[in-house]
Amino acid sequence: MSHEPGGSTSLEGRVAVVTGAGAGLGRAEALALAGAGADLVVNDLPGAADRVVDEVKALGRRVLVVEGDVAERSTADAMLAAAVDDLGRLDVVVNNAGMTRDRMLFNMSDEEFDAVVRVHLRGHFLLSRNAAAHWRAQAKQQGGPVYGSVVNTASEAFLSGPPGQANYGAAKAGIAALTVATARALGSSGVRANAICPRARTAMTAEVFGEDTSGEAVDPFSPEHVAPVVAYLASPAAARITGQVLVVYGGMVAVVAAPVVEQRFDTTGTTWTAEELDERLGGFFAERDPAVGFAADSIMRMTL
Hints:
This protein is an alpha/beta fold. Helix content is about 40%, strand content about 15%. It is globular, with a radius of gyration of 21 Å. Belongs to the short-chain dehydrogenases/reductases (SDR) family. Keywords: Oxidoreductase. Its EC number is 1.1.1.100.
């Protein structure tokens, strides 16, 4: 994948699919993509996408609606068909649809866990898999790379482990891993995949962020800060960006480094003994706050 400084950020002639596009982050992303020139397939639950359809049409772009649950195979199939068969091609996938069922782990029901993982992780998988199969077949047919960009929606919850969001954090961790696997599986076909971890004030996060008290002209947690990043990642200008996890909010983009080994321990004997483990591994953690654990607190402490 080549990159020329100042490469085109235009999506003219491209077709993008955006899930959960009826409101909040998905709506802002759909409008940013349309503003960059893309025609769209937008998805949401029945009736929820009517407003964004009108807004996309007002920008002079073609737009089709596929209503339905993103975790249903039939919805993913319909989105691919709308893009390829009706609009003529597929270039960009933005997996955004999601929901929450917040509860402390010890009170969480089977259904609350399954519902969140189903919509977020399975929903991302189904459309990504369909798009991947389409792009790979295209690449084989034409004997070379095709154009494709996947932008997934993870969350800092997969790093910080919110105590009331075990289901959400687990789903978002899965999405981060799915993104890297997608990038690696499709790189030879010319397709890129990245994940954003947005902080955005939407209906889904209203209880998390509350009201805007910043006094800024644009709310630091407005989806308006996130949508341009998604449109950029979808564009040819971002040709060298793939397999990345990006924290995005308030006019800031932070590239998250891959996890690294902090400390390695090797047994001095043939196999570990409890005493040696306690001396070496236990000793390493003896002076640490056990409440911190793996959580990436440094990311959560980033200020605007």
